[in-house]
């Protein structure tokens, strides 16, 4: 379902910060399976590293919309320009906890203050883009990329945002009218 190789990971973050995909389905998909598989496609692509970008690995992955050197793009396996967005792997923690935690540990403990600044993780980085001059790290912190990190970590930890959003009567009514089924609907 969706783009070839799943597209940017923000599809799985923005769509499901409030709506809990676990057990949710309609005539088109089982969204628990969809969110996990889309994330695993992105993870496996980065781990396999078909474009041979320096640094991509099972601990350096995550393709989604972000700042890149010289602009902004929606990175994905079909639009990979060598830039990793920390929000992609970290916000995927409800779907791929082990893989996301490995990335979080690498970003924080190995790349450290090059990547983690006063306002959190910078928007993106490339260990490959400037092989001769060292790595590139964005100067920006985009709220639209910081927000999913916080929300999805909390959904992974406690399901708080999912539980609050999914308990709203109007959300339940709307999802049922749209043909969704799942726990609590």
Automatic annotation (TrEMBL):
Which branch of life, at top level? Bacteria
Pfam families according to UniProt: Glycoamylase
Per UniProt, residues of the Glycoamylase-like domain are 6-168
Protein's name according to its UniProt entry: Glycoamylase-like domain-containing protein
């Amino acid at each position: 379902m969706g783009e070839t190789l799943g597209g940017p990971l923000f599809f799985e973050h923005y769509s499901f910060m409030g709506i809990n995909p676990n057990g949710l389905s309609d005539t088109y998909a089982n969204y628990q399976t969809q969110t996990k598989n889309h994330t695993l496609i992105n993870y496996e692509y980065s781990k396999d590293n078909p474009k041979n970008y320096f640094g991509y690995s099972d601990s350096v992955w995550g393709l989604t919309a972000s700042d890149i050197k010289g602009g902004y793009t929606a990175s994905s396996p079909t639009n990979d320009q060598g830039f990793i967005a920390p929000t992609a792997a970290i916000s995927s923690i409800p779907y791929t906890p082990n893989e996301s935690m490995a990335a979080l540990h690498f970003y924080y403990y190995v790349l450290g203050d090059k990547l983690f600044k006063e306002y959190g993780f910078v928007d993106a980085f490339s260990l490959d883009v400037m092989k001769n001059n060292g790595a590139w790290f964005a100067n920006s912190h985009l709220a639209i990329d910081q927000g999913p990190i916080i929300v999805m970590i909390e959904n992974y930890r406690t399901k708080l945002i999912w539980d609050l959003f999914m308990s709203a009567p109007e959300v339940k009514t709307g999802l049922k009218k749209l043909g969704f089924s799942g726990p609590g609907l």
